[in-house]
Amino acid sequence: xxxxxxxxxxxxxxxxxxxxxxxxxxxxxxxxxxxxxxxxxxxxxxxxxxxxxxxxxxxxxxxxxxxxxxxxxxxxxxxxxxxxxxxxxxxxxxxxxxxxxxxxxxxxxxxxxxxxxxxxxxx
Length: 123
Fold this sequence. Notes:
Layout: H1 9-22, H2 30-49, H3 57-67, H4 82-89, H5 97-107, H6 111-114
């Protein structure tokens, strides 16, 4: 484990790349501990340099989609089929871990934002 503070964008990008490699490391292992510490460091850097007003994952997705000029259909294949995308964005289904990973990769939204809890609409 060779951790150092994240001081700039290069450090941040390197930290993200490393976390992607060790994200699934078992808890209690050397890499698992590194992933936990690295996640906290990344979260701290993102909170300081890339604040998102809302901790609501669905709002964060919608904001980023707007920023990237994406439409709902652009997420088909990223988080599932047309119906699944609709259910997620309309708060009828929760995000899964696999969806969070893909959204983090495609939309560059921190997993720490995407894992926040949110309420589903009543059916």
